[in-house]
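PROTEIN DESIGN WORKSHEET
SECTION A - STRUCTURE
LENGTH: 732
TOKENS:
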């Protein structure tokens, strides 16, 4: 009996050990495997790094520069690039655990791989060669540095993988995650997402916009919001308004400082005619904003209605759904999500569904299908490539007319003095009549729209009389100065265009509309402005705190009095700045996402308690509270969540300081003077090598960033040769 017990014990131990080995090693073998590498060809790129480590990449062809772009980016941040590759294979959960598994579910649910595979031949041969060149650059770096590879069998990658990354990520920039999450969790959809705001009257320029508001359509947040405000600022000034006959474009994106949508600065120079300086995201073979010799553009997030939800009528077991009176099979597929827990990666089963409307979810509340702008398309890749190649406003407009990029405002300027604002959004071409504001019936195929409205219908402002265009994530109705506003009657309600104003927009339009030339110095003063207007959520919160009866709470009464003395700036010079920035943070976030504003007393108490706990006072200098931190660099910052100098969201450090993680990120000032030559400057919060602590460029831009200063962008080949500090030639 003892012998049999021992044998059973050893058997159990063996089974347990076997299970542990399987759980620790199954994923690379059962996960989606790499496809064939790109077609064999020779690539060669020169990578010259300037004094700040920014790579300047030269190649004979655009494909060569894409090869060099991937290799240079991998030298600086191979860790994040691998995360992006894992996302394009449904394997991110094997790296990031539960959070990564959510991305993997979206990958399968969207059918990102299937879309890329079926649509690759719609891309031009030039674009496909660029995608293959970029993939080859990643493969080359991985082959030379196998010790840095996070997951077995992740490489080689090919052009289809790169295209899949575009398909996967673009819908989340206009809020698909904020629809998918409540649907998948069985939560009510409309209350979860708040409502858009439609004014009952039009406000004059510079006034608080939309004081009388009524609820309209749900408006989800864009990707990268980090449960806070995501946005950007952009300004273009015409030569006639600049004071020195210079065209200026100021790009001021607000993105996370780390991760898959953190900016990476570069310059590319191809003998095929592509010469562009700007910034890109991990996984892209070309810049997404910046300039060439003759023109430039930048982006800000916009929030039109790009998503429709349909409730399907299904049979028992949700095997079929009814459409136009006929029962159709509800397509379904079993998927396995790899989820890392400690040393083990567990396979978690899930099911994804699809109807004629788009991807679907079977939930306790019913079966829902979702249709969104840009569904089943890879045209965004072609459009970005053509934008990089454009040489004048006509060519740039032709690239915009491809309508591949489903959302984001574009602000444009060029050597000829043209400035423009385009409310870019591939808004669904819906028929009038149905209630597109709610959940639609899934039984009527006439509600399944097939494409966007024409590009000619997009709201635009070109060369306004005011001499400037701007956007700070506000309504497109206010994109320029007095007399240049867009007509609300020409923007149909069915588009779901946002009509609200951010504090940044209120400040920008006020400062830009003042008399006199908008010189370089004045433009930079506006960009780094830390002021608040007492309007919207700011007024609501400040008035709410002022009305509190705190006679029996002396600690909060002291905080109330301090806030009442605030000068409405976050410049770090006033004693109330730190308290005010913390009190307004939650209200700012909720206002932008169009959710109910928080309780003023709760926010005042939270802020006062935090400051007292960590600083022993409620009036520490703002720079002691909000910090730019990277490695051993620890510097004071200024600005607030919704100021033109943006410090949008933060992590609370163990010492109570707020380490900024989202806000002013890549900033670029571009100028064409009377001589017609382009000049530019830029800055980032950290440096070129954000995940390489041993690099001198891990955080070398931080001192300039906190001082509101820029570094030069070396654009011409002569300047690159003069200011280059390292040079390498990479080949495969």
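SECTION B - SEQUENCE
RESIDUE ASSIGNMENT:
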């Amino acid at each position: 009996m003892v012998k049999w017990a021992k044998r059973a014990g050893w058997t159990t131990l063996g089974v347990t050990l076997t299970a542990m080995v399987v759980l620790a090693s199954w994923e690379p073998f059962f996960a989606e495997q790499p496809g064939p590498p790109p077609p064999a060809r020779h690539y060669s790129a020169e990578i010259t790094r300037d004094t700040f480590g920014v790579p300047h990449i030269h190649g004979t062809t655009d494909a060569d520069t894409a090869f060099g772009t991937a290799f240079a980016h991998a030298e600086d941040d191979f860790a994040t690039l691998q995360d992006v590759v894992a996302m394009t294979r449904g394997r991110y959960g094997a790296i990031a655990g539960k959070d990564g598994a959510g991305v993997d579910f979206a990958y399968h649910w969207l059918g990102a791989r299937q879309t890329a595979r079926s649509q690759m031949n719609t891309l031009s041969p030039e674009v496909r060669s660029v995608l293959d060149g970029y993939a080859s650059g990643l493969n080359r770096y991985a082959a030379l540095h196998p010790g840095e590879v996070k997951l077995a069998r992740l490489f080689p990658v090919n052009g289809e993988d790169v295209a899949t990354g575009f398909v996967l990520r673009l819908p989340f920039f206009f809020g698909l995650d904020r629809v998918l999450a409540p649907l998948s969790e069985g939560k009510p959809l409309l209350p979860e997402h708040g409502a858009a705001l439609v004014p009952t009257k039009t406000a004059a320029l510079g006034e608080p916009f939309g004081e009388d508001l009524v609820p309209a359509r749900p408006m989800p947040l864009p990707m990268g919001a980090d449960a806070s405000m995501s946005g950007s600022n952009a300004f273009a000034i015409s030569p006639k308004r600049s004071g020195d006959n210079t065209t200026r474009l100021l790009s001021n994106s607000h993105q996370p400082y780390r991760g898959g949508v953190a900016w990476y600065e570069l310059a590319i120079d191809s003998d095929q005619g592509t010469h562009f300086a700007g910034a890109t995201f991990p996984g892209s073979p070309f810049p997404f904003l910046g300039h060439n010799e003759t023109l430039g553009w930048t982006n800000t997030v916009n929030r039109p209605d790009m998503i429709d939800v349909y409730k399907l009528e299904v049979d028992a077991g949700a095997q079929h759904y009814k459409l136009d009176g006929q029962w159709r099979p509800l397509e379904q597929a079993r998927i396995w999500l790899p989820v890392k827990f400690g040393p083990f990666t567990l396979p978690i089963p899930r099911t994804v569904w699809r109807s004629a409307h788009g991807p679907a979810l079977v939930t306790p509340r019913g079966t829902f299908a979702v249709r969104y702008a840009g569904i089943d398309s890879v045209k965004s890749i072609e459009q970005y490539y053509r934008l990089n190649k454009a040489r004048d406003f006509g060519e740039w407009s032709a690239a915009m007319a491809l309508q591949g990029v489903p959302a984001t405002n574009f602000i444009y300027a060029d050597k000829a003095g043209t400035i423009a604002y385009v409310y870019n959004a591939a808004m669904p071409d819906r028929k009038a009549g149905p209630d597109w504001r709610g959940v639609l019936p899934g039984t009527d195929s006439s509600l399944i729209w097939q494409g966007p409205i024409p590009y000619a219908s997009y709201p635009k402002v070109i060369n306004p009389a005011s001499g400037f265009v701007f956007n700070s994530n506000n309504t497109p109705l206010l994109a320029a100065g007095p007399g240049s506003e867009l007509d609300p009657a020409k923007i149909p309600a069915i588009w779901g265009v946002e009509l609200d104003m951010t504090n940044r927009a209120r400040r920008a339009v006020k400062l830009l509309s003042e008399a006199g030339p908008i010189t370089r110095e004045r433009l930079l003063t506006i960009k780094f402005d830390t002021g608040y207007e007492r309007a919207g959520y700011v007024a609501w919160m400040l008035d709410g705190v002022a009305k509190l009866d705190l006679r029996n709470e002396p600690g909060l009464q002291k905080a109330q009095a301090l806030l009442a003395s605030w000068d409405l700036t976050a410049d770090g010079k006033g004693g109330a700045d730190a308290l005010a920035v913390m009190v307004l943070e939650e209200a700012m976030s909720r206002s932008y996402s169009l959710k109910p504003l928080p309780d003023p007393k709760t926010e005042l108490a939270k802020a006062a308690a935090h400051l007292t706990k960590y600083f022993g006072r409620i009036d520490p200098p703002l720079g002691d509270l909000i910090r730019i931190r990277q490695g051993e660099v620890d510097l004071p910052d200024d600005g607030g969540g919704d100021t033109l100098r943006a410090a949008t969201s933060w992590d609370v450090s163990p010492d109570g300081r707020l380490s900024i993680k989202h806000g002013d990120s890549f900033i670029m000032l571009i100028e064409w003077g009377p001589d017609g030559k382009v000049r530019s400057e830029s800055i980032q919060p950290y440096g070129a090598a954000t995940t390489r602590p041993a690099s001198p460029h891990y955080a070398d831009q931080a001192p300039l960033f906190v001082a509101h200063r820029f570094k030069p962008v070396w654009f011409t080949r002569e300047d690159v040769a003069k200011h280059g500090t390292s040079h390498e030639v990479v080949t495969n």
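SECTION C - NOTES
The chain is about 30% helix and 25% strand.
The chain has a mean pLDDT of 91.
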